[in-house]
Please model this.
Amino acid sequence: MDIWYSDNHTDNINFSLRINRQLFSAESELQRIDILESVEMGKVLVSDGDLVFTQKDEFIYHEMITHPAMAVHPNVRKVLVIGGGDGGVVRELIKYSTIEKIDVVEPDKLLVEVCSEYFPEIAGSLNDKRVSIRYEDGLRFIRSKTDVYDLIIIDSPNPFGHGEGLFTKEFYGNCYNALRDDGIMINQNECPFYEEEAYQCQRMHNKIVKTFPIVKVYQAFIPSYPSGHWLFGFASKQYHPTKDLNKVDWYIKGIGTKYYQPTIHEGVFALPVYVEELLKNVE
Model:
């Protein structure tokens, strides 16, 4: 029997994967979680029917949401990851011996447990002694934090449903307050290519540029994500993402990656014209 899973990108476009079998399915209080075994892309994590990542290309997303900030900020000691219960961001962060503390705020304990079982090569990072996991809402957690973190990474779900609070002006203002004087915030900024997703890109960017003095958007190619073209936001109190890049220092650290390296760093901030116009319209 031929089994296919389709991730809905628009009302008229689906991204489909041939599936060998379904490995897991359950509902938590927040979402339905499915683990599928695909023929071409390895195991696939699905939330409420939407593709979260595939085993074959997840490294691109997790490297690109993590390393650009780490290559710019000269002294990241304490990091907050909002979301990130799959462990992918933490896997990249623990490659840096200079990081002393990583707080992960993940509202869904089941997600962590499922990823620990089916993606141990990713979620195993959460067992690092520098990591503390809090099972609570990210917006509620960060309200009480001031001048605590050097880096905040918002590894959030889509900007609706249980994660909608992570896309408000209040939330970005709380992130600003929770950062130290030279802190950086990184967020996933959705796909700019399709109309509905492009609107979400604009919505996030508009709120962030009103909160941080330095805001730039950068891109990566992730095959399984809508259109393959994905954006990230770099918001900073002090550091410029390209002018303050220290290539030599990053290479000296000997960080192992498969996608990110400083030689592409400046290039990913050079955006296509249509994306520049999309963002300028809300700045």
